[in-house]
Amino acid sequence: MTTKHNAPFSVELQSKIDTLKARRKPVQLGSIHFESPLLLAPMSSIGTAPFRLLMEDLGAGGTVSELISCHGINYKNIRTTDMLKVDPREKNIGLQLFGENPEAMAMAAKVAEEFGPKFIDINMGCPVKKVVGTGAGSSLLKDTSTLGHFFETIKKSIQVPLTIKIRIGWDQDSINAMEVIHIAREEGVEFVAIHGRTRSQQYTGLANWELLEHLGEKAPLDIIGNGDLHTVNFVREKMNTTKCSALMLGRGPLRNPFIFLEPFLKEGEELFFTPEDHLEVIQKLLDYSRNYAHSDHTLLISIRKHIIWMAAGYNNVSYFRDLIFKTPDLSETMKISEEFFTTLKDKRKRLQDHESFMTSGHG
Predict the structure, then answer these.
(1) Which helix (H) or strand (E) covers residue 168, if one does?
(2) Which of residues 263, 289, 320 is at a domain's end?
(3) pLDDT reported for residue 352
(4) Is residue 202 classed as helix, strand or coil in its secondary structure?
(5) Nearest CA among 232, 158, 224 for reference residue 193
(6) What DSSP string describes 22-65?
(7) Which helix (H) or strand (E) segment is 225 a member of?
(8) What pLDDT was estimated at residue 357?
(9) Catalytic residue status for 70
(10) Structural contact between residues 362 and 46, judged by C-beta atoms closer than 8 angstroms
(11) Are 226 and 257 in the same domain?
(12) Residue 361 falls within a domain, yes or no?
């Protein structure tokens, strides 16, 4: 299998994608239309334009960017401004901003809007110290008395819809998601995505889906449920039973890029994605990434982590992972990857549903 720059997927892979894409049902969240109720969650250093575009190709109904600093935007930091770039082929993209000051957020939102997103999203869920320590991210959940002004100031600075992503609360003793939702509704926020953990949980333990379902049923805004949706079985189960209006997948697509499609498989249907299909996805991501990488070195680092994630669940992955990390050249890395994915005798990927993944955090 040879790599062709900007080559389309093979006829065989595209046929599988098209078959499952046709089974998706569009969803309307507030005034925002999505192609499917399964959306890509924002992830730090991962939700770049190339990866978002790839996930749309592979069935995601919409995507949200990695979290972007309002101060970096306002200071005109080049790297931060680059994070605002929206690929013209992206259809359903939200740019997510973080910050603690409503005026600074409003100014940054106005700039972000010029890049053409479908909506602007406020990060109110990131639990990482360097974000929370500034009063941003999930720290915004601690004092709800300031949120009305916060939302109002940002919303009146932009023409596109405003959305928010939160956690269920700061800690187990201060679960206040419903209060935040009601404030958001009063200020014209379109929908609320909710990660079913508290800030103090970080990414440990289990997401509280009992609470998410309650919010999905009782809240006055459309709710997007998020948390632990990293296996096809769990996504399918929730897709068929949830009271939430949509679901947001974060870690799952990193190891299974077809997770936005596979929940639409019919029982007993003999259609599955092969190692060769995963290789095509890696090659497509490399193609997309060439236009956005700052250097060959950053391109290698980015592609290498995605290759390792996508190889998870296949035989001999430990040996392959060690080999990839020892290879300092992009061309050689792709050659080794091609050999690995095209010579596997067992074509089925077997991920463990209970296996923890990226519990140290991702934004």
Answers:
(1) strand 162-169
(2) 263
(3) 74
(4) coil
(5) 224
(6) TT---EEETTEEESSSEEEPP-TTT--HHHHHHHHHTT-S-EEP
(7) strand 222-226
(8) 59
(9) no
(10) yes
(11) yes
(12) no
Helix/strand/coil for 258: coil
71 within 8 A of 35, measured Cβ to Cβ = no
Alpha helices in 267-352 (DSSP H): 275-289, 296-311, 317-325, 330-343
Domain housing 242: 24-263
Q: What is the mean pLDDT of each run of 10 residues along the chain (363 residues)?
A: 64 98 98 97 96 98 98 97 96 97 98 98 96 97 97 98 98 97 98 97 94 98 96 96 98 97 94 97 97 91 96 95 95 97 94 61 47
Distance in angstroms (rounded) separating the CA atoms of residues 235 and 39: 11
Same domain as 110, residue 163:
yes
Closest by CA position to 56, among listed 98, 85, 86, 81: 86
Helix ranges (H only) for the chain are 11-21, 49-57, 70-74, 78-83, 102-113, 129-132, 147-155, 177-186, 209-218, 232-241, 252-255, 275-289, 296-311, 317-325, 330-343
Predicted confidence at residue 363, as pLDDT, reads: 43
Question: Cα separation of 165 and 41, whole Å?
Answer: 9
Distance CA 289, CA 243 (A): 37
Could you say which of 263, 285, 302 is where a domain stops?
263
Phi, psi values for residue 356, rounded to 5°: -75, 150
- How far is the C-alpha of 29 from the C-alpha of 31, rounded, in Å? 6
**Catalytic one among 126, 136, 247, 344?**
126
**318 and 174 in a common domain:** no
Q: In this structure, how many other beta carbons lie within 10 angstroms of the beta carbon of residue 346?
A: 10
Q: How far apart are CA 321 and CA 280, in angstroms?
A: 18
Closest CA to 351 of 231, 244, 257: 231
Give the tokens for residue 76: 């005109």
What tens digit of pLDDT does each residue of 304-356 get? 999 999 999 999 999 999 999 999 999 999 999 999 999 999 999 988 765 55
| The two three-digit tokens of residue 72, written as one number | 């970096």
Number of domains in the chain: 2
CB 322 within 8 A of CB 294: no
